[in-house]
Write a structure and sequence with these properties.
Elements (H helix, E strand, L loop, with lengths): L13 E3 L6 E3 L3 E5 L3 H6 L12 E5 L4 E3 L3 E3 L7 E3 L1 E7 L15 E9 L1 E2 H10 L4 H4 L5 E3 L3 E2 L9 E6 L2 E7 L7 H11 L7 E3 L7 E2 L5 E6 L3 E8 L4
Parallel strand pairs: 3-15, 5-11, 6-18
Antiparallel strand pairs: 1-2, 3-4, 7-10, 7-16, 8-9, 8-15, 9-11, 9-12, 13-14, 13-17, 17-18
The structure holds manganese (II) ion.
The site of manganese (II) ion (MN) has 7 residues, from loops.
């Protein structure tokens, strides 16, 4: 048998923080599915909040990439989509947190792009298989610098995404089906939320394909901007 040396631990995953020189460690990445009515509708779903609950999927921390990056067009897809989202950054631990106290866990916010291999996601969805190949892949979680806003609940403010300068997604955080408060409280029933956990809160309508050469620019009122360039696929 070949001798294998043990490997070095992977580099810690982190994000820049506005106003600080040090980066914040990232723990887990949670994502909310179908959290704007108009996006649920464009994906062929109706959401009735009454009697329903939010649902989640996760991305590996290894899927994270900083805003401003150029990434290769992702492998094994012919339909990679942009999804512009508000990202909640958890800064304090919490388990089974009441909605009235959910804001106490919030460190701040960031802009996020939940890149999605839509063809793989939909193929999985049709077969009742997990979404991982469609959602959790390298460079699939693009996140801006974290903007500290301790204890603040963002409940309104425009959110938009431009591709090559043309507006593709535009909505308002007030259109979230489940609010930031409700999501933090609900997710904390399933997980012990911890500092460094990120929560992608869902995308508005207008999702669509990206292609090599595209320049994406997202903005959220009161949070900031995010940028991404799609490069050629890897040979
Ligand atoms: Mn999403």
């Amino acid at each position: 048998m070949t001798e294998f040396p043990l490997w070095a631990p992977p580099a810690p995953v982190s994000l820049p923080v506005k106003g600080l020189s040090e980066r914040a460690a990232v723990n887990r990445i949670f994502c909310v599915g179908r959290n704007y009515l108009a996006h649920a509708a464009e994906m062929g779903h109706k959401v009735e909040k009454e009697g329903d609950r939010p649902f989640y999927f996760t991305k590996s921390p290894q899927a994270l990439v900083d805003s401003g990056a150029t990434i290769p067009y992702p492998p094994e897809t012919r339909n990679c989509h942009h999804e512009m989202e508000l990202v909640v950054v958890i800064g304090a631990p919490g388990f089974r947190v009441a909605p009235e106290r959910a804001h106490e866990l919030i460190y701040g916010y960031a802009c996020g792009l939940d890149l999605t291999r839509r063809d793989l996601q939909l193929a999985a969805r049709e077969k009742g298989r997990p979404w991982d190949l469609g959602k959790d892949f390298e460079n699939a979680a693009v996140v801006s610098e974290i903007v500290p806003m301790p204890g603040v609940l963002l409940e309104r403010g425009w959110i938009k995404l431009l591709v090559n300068g043309a507006i593709k997604q535009k909505s308002d955080l007030g259109n979230l089906i489940w609010s930031v408060r409700e999501i933090v409280a609900d997710l904390s029933l399933f997980y012990h939320l911890a500092p460094g956990d990120l929560i992608f809160t869902g995308t508005p309508d207008g999702v669509g394909p990206v292609k090599p050469g595209d320049k994406l620019e997202g903005k959220i009122e009161g949070v900031g901007t995010i940028a991404l360039t799609i490069g050629p696929a890897e040979a």
